[in-house]
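G., the chain you wanted modeled:
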Amino acid sequence: MCRGFHKGVHRTDIHYYRLKKGIQRTKEFEKKGLAGYAVNTGLKCGHLCTYCSTGAMVRAHRYFTEQGISAFDNTYAVVDPATPDRVADDARRIKKRGMIQLCTIVDAWAPEARSLQVGRRCLEAILSQPGWVVRILTKNASVEDDFDLIRQYKDRVLLGLSITATPDKEAVIAAIEPHASPIRERLRVLTEARTMGIRTYSMLCPLLPGIADSPESIDELVQRSVAFGAEEVFAEAVNPRGRGLILTQHALAQNGYNVESKAIAAIRSRSAWSRYVAGLIENIQRSMRRHSDISKLRFLLYPKGLEAQHLAKIREDDAGVVWL
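Predicted structure as tokens:
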């Protein structure tokens, strides 16, 4: 086990911790239609998005209990610099190959991972072996620095940068995704990828109330997805697990975005969250039918928590809905 501590990237403390796994099966993401395998380069991402549900998933991990720190504390990142070594071993060893998502709980191009070239090194290790396909998901425009590598294997890589709002909401998003790239930069990188023949997909997640859930905002996001050639359009409501909603609400208020903060506060009850989800699905279905192709929609839906009336409404027209 390797532990370390470093300061400096975006004033975020960086903890080093050696994980045990490289490439692992992921039934959950296979069910989502994203990938059958996953690689994660750490336990906590340096983008420090307030709504992130990873804290709720890893809060019981031994690292946090041993260190006596909270997985919800948004002042540090946890990365494993040795991940590419394990990934290289697994990429050679595993015989049944398929699609790998890089990553599922963190971001391999977040500042702390980028400083170690973890994302690129994992990509090199995976793509050096035949039969593997990689789905990249990031919020960082620095992934374009690795386009030279991606272009060599462009038939085996799908690129996605999470687009969580329209460009006019960029400042609002910066308050809750403090170390992620600006929305305009993410869109620029996806557009550039298309011009290079790199395969892209759209990840509209999460579409937050009061920020990105209006019909007008969704129309713009869908049209932009079409413009950069998205093969699929994934979308999702904000996950109510853990402390994500309250942290997001507070961050927005602290930065003077009181209207948006109140919109987040308004969905903290089960009935309001359920209504928000049903409306979000209806809006994106309508937009996909108008501006794209509904067969490309993958709305990831966890029905637990939905009220009966909203669940029934969704079942009446669940085109594009992936039931989880």
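The chain has two domains: 1-138, 160-324.

Shout if anything looks off.
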